[in-house]
Design brief:
about 250 residues; alpha/beta; Ubiquitin-like (UB roll); Rossmann fold; 9-stranded mixed sheet; 3-stranded mixed sheet; 6 helices; 12 strands; elongated; disordered C terminus; membrane; POTRA; Cell_div_FtsQ/DivIB_C; POTRA_FtsQ_type
Length: about 250
């Protein structure tokens, strides 16, 4: 075979190889285009609220202060999304932003339902007049609702909510087992405690030894009650004794 024949044979093989290569590249491009188109179409369908709407939201958990209407308003914008594109974390945040919701958990249930479990705030005290303390001592702001029981009035520096609640519970338990009821407790900016009983008696407790001073009041109260006067304020900020302001004396001085 001459060099000319060999050259023609090589050129034929190269042309054939180029043809296969071009065909392979075109086929690969067609496959890629097809996959991209399918992915875009699938993404469009998954994000189409008309094609895959959220058909229902099931709310569970005991609710006293959060109405269905409040939940509907909170989820109004999110419900315009498709079932797949709805972000459950955003749904959770929207629900937990409601004033009386303490915690919310959200999960999808195929084919088109969101399941929500709500835990409401449990108020245990009024805090600084216009806020509340929950059972964990956390401060939260929420409007007053019907059905909220009578709660103690607690006041103090904003960051001391849990400490004031804990002290209230400790003092309240000691007073209750001895026949008294604690109505309010306040902590001043200088960390001095002031308590008021439901009977109207006020107790100045100072900065320390609260339990011991409450016990001193309990021990001496029978003697105070035997007087033909009404107890107004009992100052227990002494190491061993106490001072009494009689309610009648206060009225006479006014």
């Amino acid at each position: 075979m001459s060099w000319s024949d060999k050259g023609q044979q090589v050129r034929g093989l190269l042309l054939k190889t180029d043809w296969y290569l071009c065909f392979g590249i075109v086929f690969l491009l067609c496959v890629l285009i097809g996959l991209t188109t399918a992915a875009l179409k699938l993404n469009e369908v998954l994000n189409d609220a008309d094609a895959l709407p959220i058909e229902a939201v099931a709310i569970k958990g005991e609710r006293k202060y959060t109405a269905d209407a409040e939940i509907q308003v909170a989820l109004q914008d999110l419900m315009q999304r498709s079932f797949v594109s709805a972000d459950v974390n955003q749904v959770q945040k929207a629900l937990e932003a409601l004033p009386w919701v303490y915690q919310a958990s959200v999960r999808r249930e195929w084919p088109a339902k969101l399941k929500v479990y709500l835990v409401e705030q449990t108020p245990v005290a009024h805090w600084n007049g216009d806020a509340w303390l929950n059972m964990y001592g956390d401060v939260f702001d929420a409007p007053t609702k019907q059905g909220i029981p009578s709660l103690p009035l607690l006041t103090g520096p904003e960051e001391q909510g849990q400490a004031v609640l804990t002290t209230y519970q400790q003092l309240g338990e000691l007073l209750t087992i001895n026949g008294f009821a604690l109505q309010s407790l306040s902590l001043s900016a200088r960390h001095a405690w002031h308590a008021k009983l439901k009977s109207g008696i006020e107790l100045e407790l100072g900065r320390e030894d609260n339990m011991a001073r409450i016990q001193r009041f309990i021990d001496v109260y029978p003697r105070l009650a035997s007087q033909d006067k009404k107890v107004g304020v009992v100052d227990l900020r002494y190491d061993t004794g106490l001072a009494v302001d009689w309610d009648d004396a206060q009225k006479e001085s006014r």
